[in-house]
Every structure is written in structure tokens, then in C-alpha cells.
Design brief:
Blueprint (H helix, E strand, L loop, with lengths): L1 H12 L2 H17 L3 H17 L3 H12 L15 E5 L3 E2 L10 E2 L4 H11 L6 E4 L12 H11 L7 E4 L5 H14 L5 E4 L5 H10 L4 E3 L21 H23 L4
Parallel strand pairs: 1-4, 1-6, 4-5, 6-7
Antiparallel strand pairs: 2-3
Helix pairs in contact: 1-9, 2-3, 4-9, 7-8, 8-9
Length: about 260
């Protein structure tokens, strides 16, 4: 648990917004130490860095360097395998007194992609992987919430296997590996957000799981025609850039620890 919080904290500090504030703080300290010109340069550089990743062309390019590694396909174009694995991160479980039903997050397309793959006959089983992180506001494990919603999308509960313990991508792979070995499952289709897929695939392959990427939730979609609005700072572009940098930081950390190939 401590390692998970440390990894998340370090990744957050590397985000464009956090780096801007750190550089601004350094600039102010330099100015206070009578090095005003150098301090001003540091602050301006931080502001330009934040501005860059707030522009849609920059965020699309950065996210695309991750998403295009595993291009998405139509459900019927994937081969038939033994199981579909869906990673958590797209659903928030229920919490009595607040919301009684599971709620989809921005990455909820993972569930729709998994249901479509199942209905297309790509696999007879669906493995759902996700527990409750320390900062989750839900009481229901995410895998159980995903099972509820997939049931409404036409996937029978008898076809599902649940991992309700894993808290991050590394633990997803470890827990899914147990289910794969116990149930004599061979090749799987791995479903997660396209942005997260490079880290997920590297981690699952390191764990010895025969996985084929089936990305969902593709975000880095270039516009058909560029407009002036593409060069106006945008909060959604900054959010996409932040999550892309988070994935690069996470992949580097996983490789250093030997958790990913």
C-alpha cells in the first residue's frame, strides 16, 4: 500500500501543473535570495511548459505516442481467445446512502468494448480485475460493479470471473495470472484504455500472460481541420497531457522495479 501511494504521488509531481508550481516556487525563492532575473526565467519557463501541454495539438501528439502502439480494431476483427480481461478504472462502485448503482467514469468505454467483444463471440469468459483503492469513495469493489453493468449489457454472470483484490496494474496482472492458471485459460484479450495499454501489456507479458491488446477509450483523435481554437489553452487538453505523462512515469517505474518488460 505504501509503495502504491508513493508511486502515485511521484507521478503526480511530474504532471505539467505540479511542475509549474514547483518551478514557480523555485523562482520566487530565487527572487527572495536577490536573484530576481534568474527567478523570473524559471517562472516563465514553467508557465510556457504548462501552456504547451494545455494545447490540444501537443496533448494529442503526446497521447498518440502511447495510444498508437496498439491501434483499436472492430470487435469482429479480433481472433477468438479463451477469455476477455477488463481492467478497473472505468467504474466506481456503489456506496449506500450516496449512490446505489455503479457509476461509469470517463474510462467507462472499457465495459462497452468488453461487452461488444463478448457478443461478437471472441471469448466465452470475461475476467474483471479491480478492487477498492485507498482513495476510492465506493464501498463496492470495482470488479463487482463492473459485473453488474456488464450483466445489463448482456454478459451473463456465469461467464464472469472476478478479481476484487488488485489495486494497480501490477496487482491486476498478478491476480489475473492466478485466475488464468486456475481455470486453464490460455490467450486473452486485454481491455483497458488505449492510453494505459502500453503499461498494461508490458506488465501482463512480464507476468507470463499470453495477452492480445484490445484498447478502448481512444482519445488522441486529430481534428479533420485545424482551427484557432486548437491553439487556445484547454483544461481537457491539459488533463489528457497529464494522464499521458503519468503513464510514461508509471511505465518507467514499473520497468525499474522489474514489473514490466
Amino acid at each position: 500500500m505504501r509503495e502504491l501511494l508513493l508511486t502515485k504521488s511521484l507521478a503526480a509531481l511530474l504532471s505539467p501543473l505540479a511542475l509549474f508550481f514547483l518551478l514557480a516556487l523555485c523562482g520566487l525563492l530565487l527572487a527572495w535570495r536577490q536573484r530576481r532575473r534568474f527567478g523570473a526565467v524559471i517562472i516563465v519557463l514553467g508557465a510556457l511548459w504548462l501552456l504547451l501541454w494545455s494545447l490540444r495539438p501537443a496533448s494529442d501528439w503526446l497521447a498518440g505516442t502511447l495510444e498508437l502502439r496498439y491501434p483499436a480494431r472492430a470487435a469482429g476483427d479480433y481472433p477468438t481467445v479463451d477469455a476477455i480481461v477488463v481492467l478497473g478504472g472505468g467504474v466506481e462502485g456503489s456506496r449506500p446512502g450516496w449512490h446505489e448503482q455503479p457509476q461509469l467514469s470517463a474510462a467507462g468505454d472499457r465495459l462497452f468494448a468488453a461487452a461488444e467483444l463478448y457478443r461478437a463471440g471472441r471469448a466465452p469468459r470475461v475476467i474483471l480485475s479491480g478492487g477498492n483503492t485507498p482513495w476510492s469513495r465506493a464501498e463496492q469493489p470495482e470488479a463487482e460493479a463492473m459485473a453488474e453493468l456488464l450483466g445489463q449489457l448482456g454478459v451473463p454472470r456465469t461467464a464472469m470471473l472476478l478479481d476484487t483484490q488488485s489495486l494497480d496494474t501490477h496487482e491486476n496482472a498478478l491476480e489475473v495470472k492466478k485466475l488464468v492458471d486456475t481455470n486453464a485459460i490460455g490467450r486473452v484479450l486485454l481491455v483497458t484504455s488505449a492510453l494505459h495499454m502500453p503499461r498494461a501489456m508490458a506488465t501482463f507479458e512480464r507476468s507470463g500472460i499470453d495477452a492480445l491488446a484490445a484498447p478502448a477509450d481512444v482519445e488522441a483523435v486529430p481534428p479533420r481541420t485545424a482551427t484557432a481554437l486548437d491553439f487556445v489553452p484547454d483544461a481537457r487538453a491539459l488533463d489528457l497531457s497529464t494522464r499521458a505523462w503519468h503513464e510514461y512515469a508509471g511505465l518507467a517505474a514499473y520497468r525499474l522495479r522489474g514489473w514490466a518488460q
